[in-house]
Amino acid sequence: xxxxxxxxxxxxxxxxxxxxxxxxxxxxxxxxxxxxxxxxxxxxxxxxxxxxxxxxxxxxxxxxxxxxxxxxxxxxxxxxxxxxxxxxxxxxxxxxxxxxxxxxxxxxxxxxxxxx
Length: 116
Fold this sequence. Notes:
Blueprint: E1 15-22, H1 33-40, E2 61-66, E3 69-75, H2 77-81, H3 83-95, E4 98-103
Antiparallel strand pairs: 1-3, 1-4, 2-3
Protein name: DUF3579 domain-containing protein
Pfam families: DUF3579
């Protein structure tokens, strides 16, 4: 199974990115790969067995753009909820030689501390 790169933090980050760039710096194709992967993973969501579950992405796997590069955000919570789905996503990245990077939430500046 694929492993995430070692992080210097003892506590794992809550999410990581799968970037649409290979280890050699090439853009991954097809251009809609992130939406396709997230579409496959859309059934892995709380209450996903509903009639409209195909119309939304999973809260644990969703597409985004990072510095102009298509990417997928994967929550580590998926590993606890559905380990096989988590390893599927990691293996997708490994099999396609995609870069994986830790993500962390950076809260916006506190509006009450800003000066007007």
